[in-house]
Predict the structure of Methylthioribose-1-phosphate isomerase.
Amino acid sequence: MTLEAIRYRSGSLQILNQLLLPHQTVYEDIRSVQDAYEAIKSMKVRGAPAIAIVGCLSLAVELRAGAGGDDPVTFIRESLCHLTSARPTAVNMGRAARELMEFAENESMEKNSEQLRESVISWIEDMLERDVNDNKKIGNYGAQHILSGVPRDSVTILTHCNTGSLATAGYGTALGVVRSLHALGRLKRVYCTETRPYNQGSRLTAYEAVAEGIPATLITDSMAALTMREMDITAVVVGADRVVANGDTANKVGTYQLAIAAKHHGIPFYVAAPSTSCDLSLESGRDIIIEVRPAEELTSINGVPIAAPGVEVWNPAFDVTPHQLITGGIITELGVFLPSELQAALTGRLTAL
Ligand SMILES: CSC[C@@H](O)[C@@H](O)C(=O)COP(=O)(O)O
């Protein structure tokens, strides 16, 4: 069974409200670009690939209903610009917007409004299949790479945040690697961090693991170094919101400290991400804009206050792991690369941002 974060039939889109998981499974209609913007901003849907796919599918829903009238290109441009502004760190929405806009402009040279709408809708609908296919390749390349480095029958992985079916069109990236290892019968166990403050690990990764029978143990973020020392961790595998030219990687806050602890313990540290999460236009991680989220995500849980009233809060949603700490490699649908190899491997394959 694979969990579905996104339900799409031509002209209709629903998302699983991830704010209510794991206790309630509620699908909500997304009828417009504005609905998608709000769902992304409030994190009802989250995870870099899923953000881009839901954003673009919401546009397809509106186009199917005839939005844009005689000037769909302007409607598409304004919609994509709005969607890209919802969350700044993940690059996938910005990349999809750039590629889709280029496609729409080219199509508009030879097609009327109705034909243009149809071809843009098909381009968007293909994103779902492309993402799942890419994730399966990531899972396979990652599993083989990890297994090639160990003499043991089975491996133990530590992961962070949620990078599974709920964060993508399906299968997942870092959790896709875990899924592939499990399918090969070579996964002993995955340790998943709770992932404070939003708890994607305890609410979502744990939910996926339980639903799919993957042996998993939940730890708090502060137990990670101890887990590395005591639990014979074979590799740490995390996802990415943006991987830049030198391999520096923005991912859920807490990733950086995992990489430092992995280095200390001599454990390979991998980033698993589709090439759509890579951004060769930025040279180093210092150039990545880090989203800072509301204080309430730290000071309360489900509306229940847990912090001293009046305390000041800093709540960056992501951190940047320097490429020197990504010792295992960057697992993409094109293969596994060292950070120093990434730029050459992707040049010519990615559109400029
Ligand atoms: C395949 S998802 C990769 C990343 O987007 C994931 O690790 C992550 O950081 C998600 O953050 P979120 O704030 O939940 O959108």
User: Anything to note?
Assistant: Residues 46-49, 90, 161, 163, 167-168, 173, 200, 239-241, 251-252, 317 surround MRU (CB under 6 Å). The two ends are 36 Å apart (CA to CA).
